[in-house]
Design a protein that fits this description.
The protein is about 30% helix and about 30% strand. It has about 55 residues and is of the alpha+beta class. A hairpin with a 5-residue loop joins strand 1 and strand 2.
């Protein structure tokens, strides 16, 4: 059976709650010369800004 589609204010709130997320992995070099990796889940719209802010 097909899923019932909801309309109205409740449906708009549910749709707003489903955000597209992206996993971003940032690498940093530590004092010993090895690389450490940090994983962050952020909104898909903010990926470029996040990478620009965290460039080494």
């Amino acid at each position: 059976m097909a899923k019932q589609q909801a309309f109205g204010q409740e449906a708009l709130q549910a749709k707003a709650a489903h955000r597209k997320m992206a996993k971003v992995i940032i690498s940093t070099k530590n004092d010993k010369g090895k690389y450490a990796y940090k994983e962050v889940m952020i909104d898909q719209d903010n990926v470029k800004e996040f990478i620009q802010q965290n460039k080494s």
